[in-house]
Structure formats: C-alpha cells, structure tokens
Design a protein that fits this description.
Blueprint lengths: L2 E3 L7 E2 L4 E2 L4 E8 L4 E2 L4 E11 L4 E2 L4 E3 L7 E3 L4 E2 L4 E3 L2 E2 L4 E2 L4 E2 L4 E2 L4 E2 L4 E2 L4 E2 L3 E5 L2 E6 L2 H21 L3
Parallel strand pairs: 1-4, 2-4, 3-5, 4-6, 5-7, 6-8, 6-9, 7-10, 8-11, 9-12, 10-13, 11-14, 12-15, 13-16, 14-17, 15-18, 16-19
Antiparallel strand pairs: 19-20
Length: 171
Amino acid sequence: MALIIPLRGFTPEIGHDTFLAQNATIIGDVKIGEQCSIWFNTVIRGDVNSIRIGNRVNIQDGSVLHTLYQKSTIEIGDDVSVGHNVTLHGCKIHPLALIGMGAIVMDDAEVGEGALVAAGSVVLSRTKIGPNELWAGAPAKFVKMVDPAQSQELNRKIAANYLMYSRWYSE
C-alpha cells in the first residue's frame, strides 16, 4: 500500500479509480484527480505548499514533485504524462502536455497545453513553453511547433495506456 502521510493539517486527497503503486509516497497538501496512476518510487511532497493533479494523469516511476515554501505550487492539468525519473518543482503543466523521462521543470516554469518537453531536458525557472511547442536540451530551448491534433492524440493515447497498465495491478 502506498505511503500516505497527513502533515500540517493536510491529508492527501486521492480521486476515484486512481492507482497508487505500493511504494509511492504522497505527503500533505496534495489533491490527485480521478483515473490517475502514481507509479513506483514516486514522491509527491506537499509538505511546504500545495500540489494539484488533474484527471487521467500518469506520474511514472521515480518522479519527484515538490515546491518552495510559501512561494511556489504545482498545478498539473488533465491527461498529462510525466515520464520516469522526472523532477517537477513548483511549476504549472497544462492539459495534454508530456514531460519526457529524466526531465527537470523548475519553479514558476509553465508548460503549455499539448507541449512536449524532451527526455533529459532542464526547463529553467520562469520559462514559459507555449501550447504545442517541443522543447529540448539543458537548458531547454524551443525546437519546433508540433501539430496540435497529433500532440493530443499521442498524449491521450499515453494517458489511456497508463490507465490500462494500472488496472493490471488490481486483477
């Protein structure tokens, strides 16, 4: 069973039909939407500020979500995929975005709807990634625009696949 820790008067809220891996850790001021999946060794640490996660979001193995005390929060929209070993720190991720494996997104950065952050990228503080943009590198830079229909199709498919994978664990 996942480790769910109430802290500072906040108890994490987990939406209906959400999968929590046995060793996921969720602490404090965290709200997770419906049909999400939080995978193995993920830490969602709402100890110093709020973390809000939309519906059908998958946060893959080894990811860490955290904020700055009294300065930053995390907001993640619906149908977002967060790849393995991602660090999200005090940022906003709009619906249908994809954050590639090993990426880091820093405080007050914003990833637009349908945007893609390539694996291993470092999105610096206060960076604004527009809708349907592909960014890559360390530090991350704009690469190109992606077709909105293709981006939505890809990101909805990944979100649906992770929901399917999570159901294997309840069989």
